[in-house]
Amino acid sequence: AEVRRVSSVQGVGVPAGTVRLLYNENPLGPSPLALKAASEALDGCNRYPMATVFSLLEGICALHGLSLASPGSAADLGALFEAFEASSVLLGAGSSEILQAVALAWGLDGGEFVEASPGYGAVGSAAQSMLGERVRRVAVPLTPEYRHDVEAMAGAVTPRTRVVVITNPNNPTGTALTLAEITRLADRLDPKTLLVVDEAYIDFAESPGVMSAMGLAASRPNVLVTRTFSKIHGLAGLRLGYAVASQPVRERLRPYLLNMLGVNTAVVAAAAASLADADYLMRSRQVAVAARTQLLAKLPEFGLKPVPGDAPFVWAKVQGDCGPLVQKLARADVLIAGGQRWQLPGYVRISTGLPAEMDMLFATLGAKA
Ligand code: PLP
């Protein structure tokens, strides 16, 4: 019965009772205020979304201390576009769309993309699938502590490097860099090389010195920081992400992003409401941190070696190949990610879930095969 209750937030198309710990989704469901705002916004979906986008933009700029010009009248679409373009913000259908646009805008003339391995790899893989042999992916192994090797990444930069990507906290390992480490990397890059800092999971970070690089995006010409409403805000199915960058970076991306015209009224209204729902955001963080703490403490009891991290998921080394373990859990409808997704079959990545879902996970781990 407990699991059925949990399944009410599983979403469309997921069988009741499935414990879904494999895509780093928010197990709480969205903020009730976000849902209410989205349904109210649907009522006005015969209108273009610009005025709604502008209220979201105000929320994003306030959150990061970015300036935003007043557009005057919300009915004047030209003024809204102008004020949007003067802001430091870019919008996408998920941060994925922005990462893909970066791949195209910086890869079109060829060059190298430097990323950590194992890592999220979205920019390099998008560049490769769109541009083929014109681009080269440079995969820099993590340190033995599973962190980005900042020194090695800086050392991998050549005159052909177009983009260096830091995913902070990293996916799949959950480890995070301090802002000081990211700043040191930024200091070493030629201003023509773009530093992308993907902060999909930054809201879940607690380690000392791990902080957003938004300040760098606002103050340097070659840093772009991405955020998403898919994780801490629980809106993955509605698709919305944003980035902050300097005017030259935004100009270079402009041909490849629809921005205000590429997002829909429902998600924009939901996102604005969610940003203002401090209580929901606190609960999202608490659920993830509690489950993470539990995973770090308990996985060793089952022979797994978890990696301490700052994300709403945990990367863990298993004994031998992860296949039998992943399958045993799957037979009990507990789904986790096997490391072969990253060509590392000796590992698993387990997303954080609700307390009842974590209980199911541990009960199944402890059960006989
Ligand atoms: N960046 C990282 C590190 C992710 O793990 C994900 C999704 O899992 C994304 C970006 C893409 O998220 P979205 O397109 O939903 O914003």
UniProtKB/TrEMBL annotation:
Is the Transferase keyword given for this protein?
yes
Q: Does the keyword Phosphoprotein apply?
A: no
Origin: domain of life = Bacteria
Q: Which gene encodes it?
A: hisC
Q: Which GO molecular function, any one, fits this protein according to its record? A: pyridoxal phosphate binding
SUPFAM superfamilies from the UniProt entry: PLP-dependent transferases (SSF53383)
Q: What are the UniProt keywords, alphabetically?
A: Aminotransferase, Pyridoxal phosphate, Transferase
User: Do you know which InterPro entries this protein is assigned to?
Assistant: Aminotransferase_I/II_large, HistidinolP_aminotransfase, PyrdxlP-dep_Trfase, PyrdxlP-dep_Trfase_major, PyrdxlP-dep_Trfase_small
Q: Which Pfam family, an example, fits this chain?
A: Aminotran_1_2
Protein name per Swiss-Prot or TrEMBL: Histidinol-phosphate aminotransferase
Check the record and name the CDD domains matching this protein. AAT_like
Q: Where is the Aminotransferase class I/classII large domain?
A: 23-361
